[in-house]
Design brief:
Length: 121
């Protein structure tokens, strides 16, 4: 029913930039939180940047000052602006949303398929 679709991943050189997009569609009444996580091979999935309830943002220490998150509420879309990319940023980036599908419904979490970001020279 609810679908999250990521786009914008690819191969970039160290120091380069990339913008990821995530569009949420389907039966959505309200999005409580939405943002980005990543997972490198053999590693745990970790938070990168998210909008929490109240429209506050939370960024991982490792990306602070380099990444930024923005959103278009009318389009249920969130963006991840990645600058000064490092090889350590290489991972599959997943979009996640915590939302209500209808008024009075409980909060549920959804995940996208992920988009590969590779930082290499």
């Amino acid at each position: 029913q609810v679908q999250l679709v990521e786009s914008g991943g690819g191969l970039v050189q160290p120091g380069g930039s990339l913008r990821l997009s995530c569009v949420a569609s389907g039966s959505i009444f309200a999005i409580n939180a939405m943002g980005w996580y990543r997972q490198a091979p053999g590693e745990q999935r970790e938070l990168v940047a998210v909008f929490t309830s109240g429209s506050n943002t939370k960024l991982a220490d490792s990306v602070q000052g380099r990444f930024a998150i923005s959103r278009d509420n009318a389009k249920n879309t969130v963006y991840l602006h990645m600058n000064s990319l490092k090889p350590e940023d290489t991972a599959v980036y997943y979009c996640s949303a915590q939302l209500r599908r209808s008024y009075g419904d409980y909060l549920q979490s959804y995940w996208g398929q992920g988009t590969q970001v590779t930082v290499s020279s």
